[in-house]
Amino acid sequence: VLHQETLRISRLVNDRNMYEAVADSLMKLLNYDYISMYHFDKNEHEWIEDLKHYPIEKQVMTKMRWSQSPWMFDSLFKELKINNAMKILTTDSVDSIIQYINQLDLNVYMIDIFLDDGNPSMIVELHKTNQFSKYDKYLLTNYITSFLSIVMPHVYLTSELYVMWNKNELNTELVAYHMKITDNEVNQLVDHTIKNLTDLHPNFNEITFLTRNVNEQDSIIAIMIMFNQLGFIKHWNIQRSTLACFILTVKKNYRTPTYHDWTHAFTVGHMAYVALNIESTLMNQYLDKIEQLTLFVGALCHDIDHRGFNNNYQTLIQSPLAAIYGYKGSILEHHHVDQTM
Question: Which residues contact 183 (CB under 8 A, 6 or more apart)?
Fold first, then answer.
């Protein structure tokens, strides 16, 4: 049975169901009630919950994450009413905690899987209303642990490839949509003749100014002047051609949905500029120069490449964006940050 299940799982290529497929395989061998699975993300240094109480709970795309690894056992310790839980969680390693839980002879059994560096990389947590029998533990120790050590690395690597494939599809689509900035466009922006923002409108520096009174071409020039007015060009020794290319690229990376377009970005950028430029806001006292630059760039880029549809829609249509960022939650927000960087 284990051999057949190993072959079945090895043929799966869709990340969305692979963890559930492993759980279903274990159900054929052990009559457990529900299962949870975790893996360690080395890039983020976090434990991520891949399955939660499957199959009794509906699985969601947004996954729980823990940067302090033992704390993912906090809710389990509370459920089991384990004494000295705080001490154990703050002092013991993940491997030690798993051994401790398994020795309690309760209705929980945990398996840790080591991939390459000697530290647990994946954890399987099984729950059973009646305590696991000696035969159950015999299977778990002698067969199922080996089975999981074979299939779980495949599941993990396939899920990574699934994300990479969707990123590639997304990047291909982005390249097709966004055109390269030409030298002529950069030179025109660098050589603009408008010197002051008040030349665009007398009330431009006021917080009540309506940005729709500035046309699209002038809005790009206005951003260039704002960078200079806020002292960023001089402080960071930014080449004007580089800045012009950046501004034009940001502009072209905004699509044309009803609301989250370049006009919206320019409006939010204007608000950030006014807040940083007016002495009465005291922003300069609380933010250093890098924080001011971050605020202004963040305001300009905060909705970059927005498609006009919300996170829930991305999840429902199983878009490449949802495949890449869904487990983190805030799908579009993570995409805006990645595109900005």
Answer: none
Q: Return the domain boundaries, the chain.
A: 1-176, 180-308
Q: Is 303 annotated as a binding residue?
A: yes
pLDDT at 328: 82
CA distance linking residue 320 with residue 172, whole number of Å: 11
Catalytic residues: 260
Token pair in block for residue 249: 């690229």
Helices (H), the chain: 2-10, 15-29, 74-80, 85-91, 94-103, 134-139, 145-177, 183-190, 216-229, 232-236, 240-252, 262-277, 283-286, 289-301, 311-316, 320-325, 331-340
Q: Evaluate whether 221 touches 233 at the Cβ level (below 8 Å).
A: no
Where does the pLDDT of residue 296 fall: very low under 50, low under 70, confident under 90, or very high at 90 and above?
Answer: very high
β pairing state of 34-41 and 46-54: antiparallel
With b for 16 or more beta-carbon neighbours within 10 A and e for fewer, the 158-178 pattern comes to: bbeebbeebbeebeeeeeeee
CATH superfamily assigned to domain 180-308: 3'5'-cyclic nucleotide phosphodiesterase, catalytic domain (1.10.1300.10)
Q: pLDDT tens-digit profile of 182-233?
A: 899 999 999 988 889 999 999 999 999 999 999 999 999 999 999 999 999 9
Least confident residue range of 82-96, 142-156, 271-285: 82-96
The β-bridge partners of 49 are 38
**pLDDT value of residue 102:** 85
Does domain 1-176 correspond to CATH entry 3.30.470? no
Alpha carbon separation from 322 to 61, 132, 142 (Å, rounded) = 8, 38, 38
Return all residues near 255 (Cβ < 8 A) that are at least 6 apart. Answer: 177, 261, 305, 306, 307, 308
Confidence (pLDDT) at 271: 96
